[in-house]
Every structure is written in structure tokens, then in C-alpha cells.
Amino acid sequence: MIRVEIRGENIEVTDAIREHVEEKVAKLERYFNDVPNTHAHVNIKVRNNKRGKIEITIPMKGLTLRAEEVHDDLYAAIDLVIDKLERQIRKHKTKINRKFREKNPDADFFNVSAFENGKEENDTDNDDDITIFRSKEFTLKPMDSEEAVLQMNMLGHDFFVFNDRETDGTSIVYRRKDGKYGLIETN
Q: Of 77, 21, 67, 73, nearest to 50 (Cα)?
């Protein structure tokens, strides 16, 4: 059973909102053979412009489902984020089932019969074929994160890989959706 943990920011999570979220998340259980005993972490935020943002993360063994949606109508945002999660499941069901069958030939993580309602006609197995269209090789130059951000901006990219001068490890700077910058450091 997927238990739902809801956290609200700038909004009181009413019983009606809680029931709607729990009902929608429960619909996802039909896609699993053995419903994972896990928690769905739901963040509901209301911004200054009164737009609702909902984020749902469902961590499971070997798989994490995550989606977010922003909408003027909070209930519509909930419906849309559940649709996104269902698309993720449909898209990756073959790959994940194959991975589980390698460990146990009789096991399937996802319930295949849940997909046989005609809704999946466009989701074919060619999603399994990952094609790399372009490959690039370059030497990582030692620099600090500020220099890497400047280099990224000069190139017009959304991310930049570099060798961190301070840690001597590979790091990545990236531009976030809010226009600020993020840094990913490796061990």
C-alpha cells in the first residue's frame, strides 16, 4: 500500500485536498503486481500569485517516481501530476520489468494487464532503444565554480562540467529553472 505524506507550504491541507490526493495516488497501485509498501511524499505549495504547485515523489526499491505540476486550480494540478506519473510508469515498464526478470525470471515489477486498456497503443517498446545522437570529448580544466558559471554563460549552455580546483574532483554547474545556479560535486 502506498501511504501518502502531505506537506503544505503557504496553504492549509484540508481534508478535501488530502482525500483527493490519496484517492489519486491510490490509482497508481493498479500498475504494480505487489504494491510497494512505501510513502508518497507530496508537497503542495501556493505561490504569491495564488498558483498551486504540487510535487509527488514515490521512492521504491530500484525506482523513484517523481513529477511536479503548476496550475491555477490545485485540484487540476493534482490530476495532471498523477497523469505524468502514469506516463512515466507506462514509458519505463518494459525496461524495469526486464531488469527484475534478470534477477527472478518469473517476476514482473509492473502489472502488465493494467496497461492493456488500449491507452498504451502509442507506447511501444522502441522507448527501450536509447540512441546517442552526438558524442563529444573534451579535457576538463581546473577552475572554481564561479569561473565555470562564467564559462557556461559564455558558451550559452545550461550546464558545464569542470575539474574543481579546490577538491580536485569533477563538478557540474547548472542553471536552475528560477534563473539561479546549482552546483553538483562528485566524491
A: 73
Rounded Cα gap, residues 174 and 7, in angstroms: 28
Question: CA 65, CA 85: separation in Å to the nearest integer?
Answer: 7
* Exposure class string for 166-178: b at 16+ Cβ within 10 A, else e: eeeeebbbbbeee
User: Are 36 and 64 within 8 A, CB to CB?
Assistant: no
Where residue 49 falls among pLDDT bands split at 50, 70, 90?
Answer: confident
Q: How far apart are CA 89 and CA 115, in angstroms?
A: 10
**Quick one: cell of 58?**
514515490
Examine the domain organization and report whether 68 and 152 are in the same domain: no
Asked if 97 and 59 sit in the same domain, the reply is yes
Per-residue pLDDT tens over the stretch 132-169: 778 878 888 899 999 999 998 888 889 999 999 988 89
